[in-house]
Amino acid sequence: MDYDFEDIIYTVDGGVATITINRPSKLNAVTAQSLQEIEVALDDAGKDPSVGVVVLTGSGEKSFCAGADVSWQKAGKMGRTGAAMYSPPYMQIVRCPKPVIARVNGYAIGGGNHFAYFCDFTIAAEHAVFGQSEPRVAYPASGPVVNYVARIVGHKRARELWMLGRRYSAKEMMEWGLVNAVVPMAELDAEVERWCDELLSVSPTCLKVYKASFVEEFEDLLGQADLLRRWLVPPEFWETEQKEGTSAFLEKRKADYSRFRKGPNTGEG
């Protein structure tokens, strides 16, 4: 493949394509460039006849992916421009004809958690932490990135995950049904290899058909990506509520959203 990657490492070995987000100093948080590179690698893996399984992971032992790089968001490169600047390749993971395994080696927060639940299988180290950051930094995601997880863990759990922004252990996420296996970090590579070997031992055509069948089951969710956000988010949001969320995160303080709830229905304002 003729492509110079900067934010990821892409390798193919023994029928397994591995995509590694390589921004450890940022906890493998991603920018638009990172996501574009992941998309290119996924496309190549899907088309490569020598590849039977794809593994998505992050560099180091601290973080799988900490979501969007908030400093990049603060610079105005994410937000109101929406999908034009920030188009996570979740649908490409879903539609890749090869099974995709998330090798979760640490924090899987925000977009990292999305990667974990959009992949076909999720294998996590015991110290991995999962959760959504969006409600805490005032980023109103919408469409399948939100509602697809309800098909994985059920509506009550999905609403808890998205509306509260809590953190969960790998063991808790396995109990919820978001994770397939949890092992000590020292055993993570061996466990992922075992799953890859099993998948490589069965019919690739069957896997392709099964995966397409699962995609068909939630086809009604696709194509909604930015629709609800355009309907429900007022224009001033990005310079008020969203700015407070991002600034609070970067300043390591608790965001204060109380003033955005004031109005005639509360007796204030």
Looking at this protein, list some descriptive labels:
269 residues; alpha/beta; 2-enoyl-CoA Hydratase, Chain A, domain 1; 2 domains; six-stranded mixed sheet; four-stranded mixed sheet; 10 strands; 42% helix; globular
User: What general form does the structure show?
Assistant: globular
The radius of gyration over CA amounts to 19 Å
Sheet with the most strands?
A: 6 strands, mixed
Uncertain stretches of 5 or more adjacent residues: 77-86
Predict the CATH topology of the largest domain: 2-enoyl-CoA Hydratase, Chain A, domain 1
Brief summary:
This protein has 269 residues and is of the alpha/beta class. It has helices at 32-47, 70-77, 90-95, 111-118, 134-137, 144-153, 155-164, 170-176, 188-200, 204-217, 227-232, 241-250, and strands spanning 8-13, 16-21, 53-58, 63-65, 100-104, 107-109, 121-125, 129-131, 167-169, 181-183. The protein has 2 domains: 8-186 and 204-221, 2-enoyl-CoA Hydratase, Chain A, domain 1; 231-261, no CATH class.
